[in-house]
Structure formats: C-alpha cells, structure tokens
Write a sequence for this structure.
C-alpha cells in the first residue's frame, strides 16, 4: 500500500496518528534530548524498613564525569526546597531522609555526564541500614502493635477537593472511607440468609511499554520538565509546591506516552529529576529500568471481607463489608482509590442497607497508585465471585440473582445518588445471550477437558468535581487548532477530540490539529485518567467550538447584514437560511473581519461531591456511570488445572460512540489485561523484596492467551448524545467472569487472584477430583 | 545495569579458545546473547571481555554425517526448527526447538547457547537427552560428551571455562513415534513448567521395541530413567502402562519449586505429561507401522 492510497492520511478511521505510529515517527519523551543534559541514576534501598545510619558518597563523587551526588539529608537542609510530595498526603520524600520504608526506595541520586558514570557512581555509594520491624500485609498493618511507617503527621496537599482525608496519625491508616446507608442491623434482621466470604487480589504491574522518563531543566527561576505523565497539571502544581514557585514558573511538556494505565498519574520521578537539575545547574534526564518501574508504582493489593443478607427469594437486604487496600509505603492516590474501593463494594446492586469501611493501609512495600479500573477491580472481584457463591447456596441461577438485584434507572447507587442512563440489565442480558448462558450450568466434558461459562457485572461512578478546560482557535484559512492538556497515551484522545471539534464546527477532521500538552500554553485539565477524557475534555472542546461558532455567526451577520438568527452553519460555511448563495466560508469570515484568528474556550465541571461522614452523595452524581458485563467460556484440563479462555463477551455502556475502532480496541485491551490478571499476574514479595522484577519472571498474557473468540458489545443510546468513557469500564468484570466459569467447570472456588493451574489442581484434589 | 566490557570477534574456534584461556575468569563467550544480555543486566556476570563467536558461520551448519545429524553450535533455534534435514531425521528436535519462546527469541538463540546456559527451564535439552545426543566441545583438546553427563546441576555443566561447544551430534534412531509436550503455567510464551520428550519404536505386533522418556524443566537437570524405560519393552504401550511410567518418573524425580509451580505440582505434572507424551508417541509409532 502506498501513502497515496490513504489519500488524506488524517482521515483514516481509527487513529489520526496511526501512520506515525506504524512508521515509528511518534516523538516520545524517551527521545527528548537537550544540550548539556546530564544522566541520572538512583541508589535504592535494600531494606524494607530501616533507619539510615550512614551514607558514604565520597567514592561516588570521585568518579570521572559525576556532577552531583545528592542525599535526602542535603535536600532537607536546603531552604529553597520542600522535599516531600504526594497528591493527598505529602508523605513521600524525594530522597529518603532518616529512614527507608520499602525495598527500592530512592536514597541517593547521582547526575553525571554519561549514564555509565552515573551507574558506576551509584554502585559506589555505601548506605548503612539499621533494620526496623516491618509489615507487609494491609490487614496486619491495621492490627494493634504493628510496626508504624509514618510517625509524624505528613503535610497535606490541597490539590483535590473530591476526597476527605481521614488519615490516622500514629497508625498505618492513610485514609478511611465509610458508607452508612440505611440501617444495617435492620437489614440483616430482614434477611433469611447471611453469607460471608473473604476475597483477595495481589499487587500487579501496569506494564506500559515505556517506563517512566523525565527530563528537567531549571533556569532563570523557572522549571521545565518533559515528563511521561498522565497528570501534567498535578505535576506542575506539586513541583511548584516543592520549589515554592508560582504555577506560571513551572512548565510541564508531555509528548505521546508509550502507555499509562494509571501508572503515570501523579508525580513519580519528576521531583527528583527537577531537584537534581537545580543542584547540578544542568538539565538532567532520568529513565527508569523495568526493574525500577516495578518498585515505583503498583496496583493495590486488597483484602475484602464481604457479608451479605438476602431474603429467601434472593433479594439483597443488607451488606456489611470491610476492605483493606495496601497503599504501600506512601499514600500516592491511595486515599482516593479507597473511595472507589468503598462504593465498589456495593457494586451495581440495589442494597438498601449498606455498611462499608475501607482502609488505605501503609505497609513496607512499593507505593500503590492508580490502576486501570481504579479500586473497582479489587471489589468487583469480591462481589462478583461472592454473588455466584450465594446463588449456588440458594440454588438460584446466578444470572437471575443478578437480574433481580441490579439497579434500575433512577435507583440509588451505593453512594445514594440516583443512577442515570443505567443499563446493567441490558448489558447482562446481552453477554448472557452471546455466550449462550443456560441454567443449571451444563459443563461439557471431553476427556480430561471440561468447558463451562461464567458471568459478571460491574459498575463504577465517574470522578466527581473534576474540571476540564479547552481552547479552540480558528485560523485565517478556516483550519482549527485545539489546545488541550489531555495526554495521548495510545487511547486515542487526540483523534476523539479532533472528531468532536470537526463535528461541532462542520469542518473535515483533517482541518483540525490537536495540541500536545504544554502547561505554558494548553489550558487546565485535572488528569488524563478515570476514563474521563472523551466525555470531559470532549465536552470542553465542544463548548469552545460552539463559542467559535457563535463568533462566526456574529461576524458573518455583520458582513452579510443579516440577523444571526437567519444564518446557518453548513460544511465550513455560514449562509443565509433559504438563500444558499449568500454564503461566506469560515476563512472569508476570519479574513474579512480582520480577526487574526477566532478563539473560543470551553469548560466541563463534574458534580458529585460526597459527604465525609456518611460517604453518601451530597447532591446529583457526577453524571456518568461506567457500566459493564462480562461472560467467559473456559476450558479446564482437570488433570493439570490449566485454563484456556475460549470465548469472552465484553459489553460496556458507551452512550454515543465517537470512534468505533478505538472504543472496541479499548475494550479488547481490557480483556487482555483481565485474562492476564485472572490467570497469571502477581508481584511476589519475600519480606518486602520483590521476587519477580522483570518481564521474564513476571509474565503478562501474550497474544496466544487471548480468547479465540472475543466479542465486544458497545451499548449505544446515541439519541441521548451522551458520551461514556470506556477506557477501563470492562476490566473489573473480566477476572470474576473467568473465575466463575472455572468454578462452573471444576467446582473449584478460588477466592485469591490469580487463578493459577496449581490452585485449580489443589482444589480439584481437595474435592476428590482430577486424580490422574 | 551494564558493567563495562570489550567485545572481541575471533575468526576461529581456536582463536576464541585462546582468548578465553588468556583472560581467564574475565572473559565469557557469547553467541546469540539472549541469555547473556539478561545476565549482564542483572549483574550476575561481570566480564571484562566478551568473546563473540556469532560470526563463525562454519559453526552454523546442519548436516547428516555417518549416521548422525550434526548441528553446529551457532545454528539458531529457528534454523533447527525449519531445517528439512532435521525434520526428516529427528522430527522430535524440530518440535522441541519450535516450542521455545517466540520467533524473535528463536531467531537469535543458538544451540550452543541453550546447552551452555544449562537453565533447567529449557526445552531442547530434554529432546536431545531422549535422542542420546553428544555435545562436541573444543578446548585444549576436542572431546565429545554424552548429554547424559553434560549437565551437572543448576546452571552447571562439565564445560571448562575456556571450552566452547562447537556442535551436537545426534545419532539417527529408528523410532517412528515421537512427542514433545511442553507445559506452561503462565503466558504461552513462558519457559516450560515441565516438558516431556518421548520416542517409541514398536514391532509388527505393536509391541514396544524401545521407548525413551526425558523430562525437562522439572528438576535441576533433565531426567531420564533407562531402567524404567526398559520395563516397557516387548509389550504394547497402553494407557495403563504409560501411567505406570508416569508414576515411576514422578516418584524418582526431585522436582524444583519456583513461580511456575511448586515441587508438589511439578511432581503431579510429571505423572500426567510423561504418560501423555508416551501415549502420543506410542500411537504414532503404531499408526506408522511397526518394525518388521
Ligand atoms: C524471552 C525469552 C524466552 C525464552 N523462552 C525459552 C523457552 O521457552 N524455552 C527454552 O528452552 N528457552 C527459552 N529461552 C532461553 C533461550 O533459548 C536461551 O537464552 C538461548 O538458547 C541461549 O542461546 P544464546 O545463543 O542466545 O546464548 P548466549 O546468551 O549468547 O549465551 C548463553 C550462555 O551460554 C554460553 N555460551 C553461548 N554459546 C556457547 C558456546 N558455543 N560454547 C560455550 N558456551 C556458550 C555463554 O557464555 C552464556 O553463558 C528464552 C529466552 C528468552 C530471552
């Protein structure tokens, strides 16, 4: 195929940067180089919890080419820096100060002329540790007498208004979120059956192809960083806090990311790179190895104890549930993750009496942060396996039990606010039909292989109180620039925004260019995460485009001497209704009016604040509900416990689809993540020391592990023209659907992820099956 | 993290051996570098000089000679997988090499490399063990080591530090039934949790003339039990007979524990996969007609 066959390449359905991606022309931050740039290497803690007795850096300093060797004590002594960061609690030192709290924590930073010199110097740094008792499990960390990670109260960060901090100083509790809805005692009193089960899921990795990378330059009282971040404005704000600068003096530039999945939200390596640049007075580059990436951020390991009361007919009357989310040594976004992990324990169900406590727990493990599915993975894993277990105990069809209890339009979510545009029933029905669900489950046996199916349904609440702003410029030739701080990371946000702007302005998508992020130029956006880009930034871009359209009508009305009400916008022109020949192109309007260019701005603000005491919504919800259902068919070899996922049906509510190719691919990507987490993935620690630190020892699914048949259903209600994010919507439903199918095939119930062949075989043996 | 080292490219095996002798512990030989790069990155090896034999094309040949298949040490896994001579004369090897990792790795990884690395979780060694291969080695002298004596432990072989593998000699066998079963517990690109190579030859009645079973991936070094194999002779290999063999291998093995499976699990898998491979190989031997 030649380029000509594509005609105008930017009109390819799919991604506007597809050509550049295929030809390797996308500029990534790892390619960023600036003259005089130094290379950084971090010395990392070998101890999980220890007092730093001594650090010796003399030999490191003498390595030729070394410019700066920096310790936490040196940073603490500086007056021009406040050396802690974190989006909610500023509890994370840029470099460990008096003690270390996990294996892999940065202790000393080296900047040198070459990466080889930096590595050599880092190897020569000697750190003496005096070990302290450590704690690794979030439930153990909650117990009285547990070692305490943070004795001093951390400084709070005032970046976000959506989460109330209830950290307990002097304990390992970084935050608590509770729901008190209805009357829990009464709810259990009304129940004929009460079931209680415990579920757990391990820490896993995001595995973006591109590990964290940052280039920082500090000059003339301002800082510029090129960062692989999903949250440029948060990074800017936190650097401003660290350096005591106005926001306007910190510039964050973000190119296309080589994947994010939540790993690149909130500051990670930007603070240490920037302070090195300050101290060295030279630009500095830091790029993590995969081994370092593994100890930089993880998904929260979590343990959920869930107790549900039901009437004889299967109606849920009450649920009491407690979850411990392991946020690692530093809180990162853990205090917010538990809010999702909190209402996530209600799932998509109607539960009149709900009593939830969710704890964000410090332990001596690498920090856990945002992960695709954000707190819902861990809790859907619990409630969707739990509901299948309940169905079996009640002798009910698990589909029917779900259908009976899922919310319907207008009913109250776990947070009390009414759900809108809610379609759990339809989604469930659709996957059940697609997979050919029958009850009683009819496992199909062929030799040692047994096939069966499993279902699940999940939901999440959109991020509340978040703000997106955008600007749209129309140039003198009628072409359009969109200025936005949405980060392109393969999800296709640039394509989606281009399509939305083009649609609003009636121009061809090829006439629209969407900017990359530069906080000096692109307007504020809270973050590129939470599946919010297309609906939130999309709404801001549409509003900005509408403003430009208003200006076009106004200017054309002056030029044509016609009231704006008598004008219409058609295909890049403004024309007089009823007389199509009285018409001006956009270009003519901008030119004739001598406007230079037209500029519009737009804003989207989500609602949905929660009451800190009851955990319930204070008003209308955030407007969007992420809804999914999944159905799996698996084949289990009962002599080995090995599982093949034969078929998967993933259904998500999409509202209005902006780009079908991308929306489907997002959902397929979720299935890839889900199969991998259901069957393979787990970070294995031994006393806080990670045992599988690379992609040979820590395996993710390969293309051959994907279901042979993968169906994606995008449930659409285009007439409501509401866009729903699909970036992570499907993921939480995938792991339980697979595990439920495995149970239906084998009778083996695994409640701790991942469901490995060995766990399945052990279960078969315990049940007296699977003997060879 | 990379340690600093120099790469030299000798023109002959003799020169390579001389370099290894000259530099002693500081020198390491490298071929496809799929394993070496990882060891260097992890700081497990800190050579000052890498002796790359990758350019010695003469060691890449695969040919038939004197009733044996000779495979040069630098033949890649992909070369072996696709070789018509191998497919014709030792199809078990084509199977085993084809099941290694993915095509990117197979295009770089060499026969000498996988043997010298002696990682227990590898595929080719069990197949070569079932075929009674000999490892051709060049150092101060040339010698040939039966594969059963080549691996001595966890990542350990009989190779002297200055010795280089130049190839393997695979005697031709008459066995018409073969199977190579690789079992993974994680991604399908994983190394084996366990793998079993089986060869079976039957007579005109379908009775076993000779059977060989080698288990890889489960124990420190690949496992073959000739005295257990011998019990199969002169009778048909049915499911029950195969199951007995599977159990005997499982009983004799001292399986390892790692993230691919515990020792308990591996023992269970030996029972299953030794039986299954044997059944597949026996069925193939019978269907192809026995020895007259
Ligand atoms: C991602 C990945 C997946 C893998 N999956 C599998 C799998 O599924 N199954 C499997 O069996 N293997 C697997 N492997 C292992 C792979 O097959 C070996 O790494 C490879 O065979 C080694 O060959 P090489 O030529 O690259 O060796 P090198 O990396 O060059 O060398 C490896 C070792 O052998 C020594 N050496 C190399 N050649 C010689 C020689 N001629 N004489 C003496 N010493 C020598 C070197 O000094 C070094 O110690 C995998 C490897 C990777 C990276």
């Amino acid at each position: 195929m030649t380029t000509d066959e594509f005609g105008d390449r930017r009109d390819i359905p799919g991604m506007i940067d597809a050509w550049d991606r295929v030809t390797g022309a996308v500029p990534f931050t790892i390619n960023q180089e600036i003259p005089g740039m130094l290379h950084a290497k971090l010395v990392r803690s070998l101890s999980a919890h220890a007092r730093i007795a001594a650090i010796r850096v003399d030999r490191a300093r003498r390595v030729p080419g070394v410019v700066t060797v920096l310790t936490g004590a040196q940073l603490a002594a500086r007056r021009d820096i406040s050396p802690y960061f974190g989006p909610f609690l500023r509890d994370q030192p840029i470099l460990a100060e008096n003690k270390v709290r996990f294996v892999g924590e940065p202790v000393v930073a080296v900047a040198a002329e070459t990466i080889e010199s930096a590595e050599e110097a880092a190897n020569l740094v000697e750190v003496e540790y005096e070990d302290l008792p450590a704690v690794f499990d979030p439930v153990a960390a909650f117990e009285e007498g547990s070692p305490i990670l943070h004795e001093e109260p951390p400084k709070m960060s005032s970046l976000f208004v959506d989460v109330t901090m209830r950290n307990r100083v002097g304990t390992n509790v970084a935050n608590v979120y509770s729901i008190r809805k209805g009357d829990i005692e009464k709810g259990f009193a009304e129940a004929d059956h009460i079931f209680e089960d415990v579920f757990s899921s391990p820490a896993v990795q995001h595995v973006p192809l591109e590990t964290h990378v940052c280039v920082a330059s500090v000059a003339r009282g301002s800082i510029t960083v090129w960062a692989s971040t999903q949250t440029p404005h948060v990074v800017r704000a936190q650097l401003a806090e660290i350096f005591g600068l106005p926001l306007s003096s910190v510039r964050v530039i973000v190119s296309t990311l080589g994947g994010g999945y939540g790993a690149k939200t909130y500051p990670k390596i930007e603070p240490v790179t920037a302070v090195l640049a300050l101290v060295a007075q030279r630009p500095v580059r830091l790029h993590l190895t995969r081994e370092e990436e593994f100890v930089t951020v993880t998904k929260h390991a979590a343990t959920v104890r869930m107790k549900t009361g039901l009437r004889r007919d299967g109606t849920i009357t009450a649920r009491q549930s407690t979850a411990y989310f392991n946020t690692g040594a530093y809180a990162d976004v853990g205090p917010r993750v538990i809010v999702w992990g909190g209402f996530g324990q209600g799932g998509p169900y109607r539960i009149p009496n709900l009593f939830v406590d969710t704890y964000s727990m410090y332990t001596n493990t690498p920090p856990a942060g945002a992960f695709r599915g954000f707190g819902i993975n861990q809790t859907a894993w619990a409630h969707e396996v739990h509901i299948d277990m309940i169905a079996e105990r009640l002798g009910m069809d698990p589909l029917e039990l779900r259908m009976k209890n899922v919310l319907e339009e207008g009913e109250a979510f776990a947070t009390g606010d009414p759900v809108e545009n809610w379609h759990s029933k339809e989604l469930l029905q659709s996957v059940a039909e697609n997979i050919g669900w029958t009850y009683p489950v009819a496992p199909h046996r062929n030799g040692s292989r047994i096939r069966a199916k499993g279902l699940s349904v999940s939901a999440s609440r959109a991020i509340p109180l978040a703000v997106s702003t955008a600007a749209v410029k129309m140039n003198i030739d009628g072409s359009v620039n969109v200025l936005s701080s949405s980060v392109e990371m393969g999800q296709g946000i640039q394509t989606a925004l281009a399509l939305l702007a083009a649609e609003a302005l009636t121009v061809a998508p090829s006439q629209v260019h969407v900017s990359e992020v530069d906080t000096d130029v692109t307007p504020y956006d809270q973050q590129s995460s939470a599946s919010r880009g297309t609906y939130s930034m999309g709404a801001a871009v549409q509003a900005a485009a509408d403003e430009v359209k208003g200006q076009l009508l106004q200017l054309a009305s002056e030029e044509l001497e016609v009231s704006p009400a008598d004008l219409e916008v058609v295909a890049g022109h403004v024309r007089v209704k009823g007389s199509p020949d009285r018409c001006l192109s956009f270009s003519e309007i901008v030119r004739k009016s001598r406007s230079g260019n037209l500029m519009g701005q737009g804003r989207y603000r989500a609602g949905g604040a929660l009451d800190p005491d009851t955990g319930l919504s204070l008003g209308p919800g955030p407007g969007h509900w992420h809804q999914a259902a999944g159905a799996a068919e698996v084949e289990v070899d009962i002599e080995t416990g090995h599982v093949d996922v034969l078929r998967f049906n993933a259904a998500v509510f999409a509202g209005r689809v902006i780009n079908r190719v991308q929306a489907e691919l997002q959902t397929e990507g979720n299935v890839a993540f889900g199969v991998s987490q259901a069957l393979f993935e787990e970070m294995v620690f031994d006393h806080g020391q990670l045992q599988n630190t690379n992609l040979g020892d820590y395996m993710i699914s390969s293309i051959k592990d994907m279901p042979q048949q993968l169906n994606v259903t995008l449930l659409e209600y285009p007439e409501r023209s509401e866009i729903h994010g699909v970036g992570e919507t499907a993921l939480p439903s995938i792991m339980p659907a697979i595990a439920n199918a495995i149970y239906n095939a084998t009778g083996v119930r695994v409640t701790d992820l991942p469901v490995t062949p060995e766990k399945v075989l052990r279960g078969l043996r315990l049940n007296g099956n699977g003997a060879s | 993290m990379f340690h600093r080292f120099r790469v030299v490219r000798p023109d002959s095996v003799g020169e390579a051996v001389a370099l290894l002798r000259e530099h002693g512990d500081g020198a390491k030989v490298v071929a496809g570098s799929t394993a070496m790069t990882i060891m260097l990155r992890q700081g497990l090896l800190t050579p000052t000089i890498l002796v790359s034999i990758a350019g010695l094309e003469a060691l890449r040949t695969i040919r038939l000679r004197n009733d044996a298949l000779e495979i040069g040490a630098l033949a890649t896994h992909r070369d072996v997988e696709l070789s018509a001579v191998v497919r014709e004369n030792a199809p078990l090897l084509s199977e085993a090499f084809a099941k290694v990792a993915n095509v990117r790795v197979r295009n770089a990884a060499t026969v000498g490399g996988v043997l010298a690395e002696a990682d227990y979780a590898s595929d080719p060694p069990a197949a070569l063990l079932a075929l009674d291969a000999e490892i051709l080695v060049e150092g101060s002298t040339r010698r040939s080591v039966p594969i059963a004596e080549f691996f001595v432990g966890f990542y350990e072989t009989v190779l002297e530090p200055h010795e280089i593998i130049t190839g393997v000699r695979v005697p031709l066998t008459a066995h018409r039934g073969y199977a190579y079963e690789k079992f993974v517990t994680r991604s399908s690109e994983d190394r084996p949790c366990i793998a079993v190579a089986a060869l079976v030859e039957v007579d005109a009645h379908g009775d076993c003339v000779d059977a060989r079973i080698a288990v890889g991936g489960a124990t420190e070094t690949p496992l073959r039990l000739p005295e257990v194999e011998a019990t199969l002779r002169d009778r048909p290999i049915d499911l029950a007979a195969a199951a007995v063999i599977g159990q005997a291998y499982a009983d004799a093995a001292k399986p390892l524990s790692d993230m691919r499976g515990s020792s308990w699990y591996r023992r269970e898998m030996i029972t299953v996969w030794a039986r299954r491979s044997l059944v597949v190989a026996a069925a193939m031997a019978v269907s192809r007609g026995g020895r007259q």
Notes: The longest strand of chain A covers residues 642-655. Residues 1-11 of chain A have pLDDT under 50 and may be disordered.
